[in-house]
Amino acid sequence: MLTRRSVLAIVFGVVALAAISAVYLTSPTDFHLKTVLQRASRATRDPAAPLQFHSDGSFQISIFEDLHFGENAWKYWGPQQDLNSVRVIETVLDAERPDLVVLNGDLITGENTFRENSTAYLDQIVAPMIQRGLPWASTYGNHDSDFNLSRTALLAREQQQKPTGLARTVNMLPGSPRAGVTNYYLPVYGSDCQLISSNGGNVADHCVPLLILWFFDSRGGFEYQKKDAVTGARVGKENWVDASVVSWFEKTQENLLAKHGKAIPSLAFVHIPPNVAYALQMDNTKPTGGIDSHRQPGINDDKPLARQAQGWCKDGTIGAGQSNSKNCAYGGQDEPFMRAIAASGNGTGVIALFSGHDHGDTWCHTWEAGRTLPGVVVLGTGVHICFGQHSGYGGYGSWTRGARQVRITEESLAASVIARRRPDVDTWIRLETGDIVGRVSLNVTYGQDVYPATPNTHTHCPTCDVVAESENTQQPPKLQVQEPKKGWKQYLKR
Hints:
Blueprint: H1 4-26, H2 31-38, E1 51-52, E2 58-64, H3 77-96, E3 100-104, H4 121-132, E4 136-139, H5 151-159, E5 184-189, E6 211-216, E7 222-227, E8 234-236, H6 243-260, E9 266-270, H7 275-282, H8 335-344, E10 350-355, E11 364-367, E12 383-387, E13 402-409, H9 410-419, E14 425-431, E15 436-442, H10 464-472, H11 489-493
Parallel strand pairs: 1-5, 2-3, 3-4, 6-9, 9-10, 10-12
Antiparallel strand pairs: 2-13, 5-6, 7-8, 11-12, 13-14, 14-15
Helix pairs in contact: 1-2, 3-4, 3-10, 6-8
């Protein structure tokens, strides 16, 4: 039985919690709690249902990239890296509750895998999405192709996941082996679209998508089970978006325009960035230089960054490592892709292009309309060029792991139609520590607006050192309490 004192304590507790929540929800300085409290989880849906804006009028994507699962499976620290990468995914998903997860390349470190189980790491990667009923879509990176790892087999493993429908990765150019595997698009429908029509027809027959998501395969890595006849080295794969994919992209856009009578705004994803990203980073024609830490906030440690067609010659021969190789830095084969993205961005088409690959770069820049960049023959049309955050404990670098978030609203889309401009897109990076950095609005004034600089923080695998020490002494690993390292206090308290 509750006493009068107990009742008063409960009442005061509820009032206090409400007051604290009100402060956080109105404070612009604590976006972490504000986001968690304001974004509700979706109701349970058919896993195969078409993508759709949330009931609050927004659509949010969490981008994980460069997870690099499968490194050194024969040493204890390799699987420990993967366990910590899973924890990063789970932490971000529980904080953000996105509508779609994008795995933007280098899911697996293919050169460390065995042929018999190289794709099995995919099960561990997607388990957090399956547990939460979240759909995901992938692009594959250069490390997802190697002597023992096949892109085709990796796609097959994705499509075998249950429940059927959560994996949205498909190959829309199956008859073109040179094109790669992850070339496709996904439509996103409005929150008011009835996904099941009264006559049982397809949603595409009675709803016009509000947004298109494009996925491109930048290839790279090495051919599956092939070696150079002379040197015995692995055979390199071309590392740019193939011309056949560009033709498909342009033709598909024409078909969508004819079907819907208008250009549909879109976001694009590719693992290896095109040359324009390199040009933006290295451009010194402006007083602020290429990347201004307050106007393009983000880490800029990978300078110069690695781009498409790097290490290839203009004649299509590889620049190093093969019997017929030459010394070439950049071949320019990504120019058709850049031209197609720029042409689509001329109006309300492609809003932004998101890449990974360069673990130490996390900024967004604008390929300004009409601007000429050094080494790029294509004029800009205002497309935003963005990097995400190194998400996995595999791969090089110790930057604090996390994932870029991208949110677009129906309100912004409607306003862009009236104003005849690109929709605004909000984006930020959620770190494994729970912190948010680099929160910006990709709008018409991006590049002029001033934001806080992004802290350049680092984390270290919290369980790998203990294991490594035990391996060196050939003793069974012991559980040890370590001194908390910066950025890991939250996890050590759990």
